Amino acid sequence: MKKRTVAVSGNEKNSSEKKELCHFRCINCGRGASDLFKDYNNGIIKMKHCEKCRDIIDKYIEYDPVVISLDILLLNRKALRHVLFNSQIKGYWKYVILLLVCDSFVKMTLQRAKGEITPVNPTYIIYSAMEWGLYKNFLLAAVELTSLILFISFLVLMLSMMPTVSSDRRTGVNKHKQSWRDMTDVMRAVILSNFGKFLVILAVLWGTQNSDIYIHLIKTYICAANVQALRVCLPSRSIWFVMAVTLAGHFLSMSVTHSIQVILFGS
Question: For a tag on the chain, would you pick the N or C end, based on fewer CB atoms within 10 A?
Answer without folding.
Answer: N
